[in-house]
Amino acid sequence: MKPAKLHYWILGCFSMALCCGSTSDKFLLSDSHPHTWEKLYLAHHWPVTVCKMSANDCQDPPEYWTIHGLWPNKAEECNRTWHFNVTEIKDLLSDMRHYWPDVLHSSLNRTQFWKHEWEKHGTCAATLQILNSQKKYFGKALELYQHIDLNSCLLKAGIKPGSTYYQMTAIKEALSSFYGVTPKIQCLPPEEGEKAQTIGQIEFCFTKKLELKNCTESKGGSKWMQADLQLGTGELSVCDDTLPTYYPSQVQRHK
């Protein structure tokens, strides 16, 4: 190969390497990209209901709403090479263990739940600059959770876990009045012999500017979200306004 041709060949290979290398770590998505998303769901789940749904033997679930995840709509597993690394969130671990625990496996492999959430949802949320690292993604989710302060809101509205049944419309009105938006509320349908649905998950929607907005999913819910809601013996779905709603204070063991 002549020197001039060799020079251009090397230059071309170098340019290609730069191009490929720059897109492997961080990526920008156009509106037509299949992983493009429009809004985020901050999902809170009620640990007692999570335990009711699961075949696992939950031990002493938290008695407060915890984080299930921060999920972009219309996108999953956007970068399968961007693996979870717990050392990147070492400064957040105390809050993570308290507010974002693995309810089903509290004494086992504590980071597996976070690994799942990052690789399935975080890698998609990371197309937003404010969420473009593992520390930013988990840190911002914790910040939004504390800003929403769902536990305090429900208590102030007189909605407490126990044996009392609530009307779903009353729960919705309390949340909408407090936050100024309509969240998405999901329940476990009544089992055989039961008359009430069991509240399980409350999701707040955010724009890409991380501003609250109404959640307007259809009754069946987003297909992108459903896989996260199948935990074992049951599946959550959008709550029925006509059914009484149970807000359990403890796990009911089936004999």
UniProtKB/TrEMBL annotation:
Entry keyword set: Disulfide bond, Signal
Membrane-crossing segments per the record: none
Entry keyword Disulfide bond: yes
Subcellular location: Lysosome lumen
Statement: the UniProt record of this protein carries the keyword Methyltransferase: no
Signal peptide start-end: 1-21
Main location: other
A Pfam family recorded for this sequence: Ribonuclease_T2
Family as reported in the entry's similarity comment: Belongs to the RNase T2 family.
Name used for this protein in its record: Ribonuclease T2
Organism: Apteryx mantelli (North Island brown kiwi)
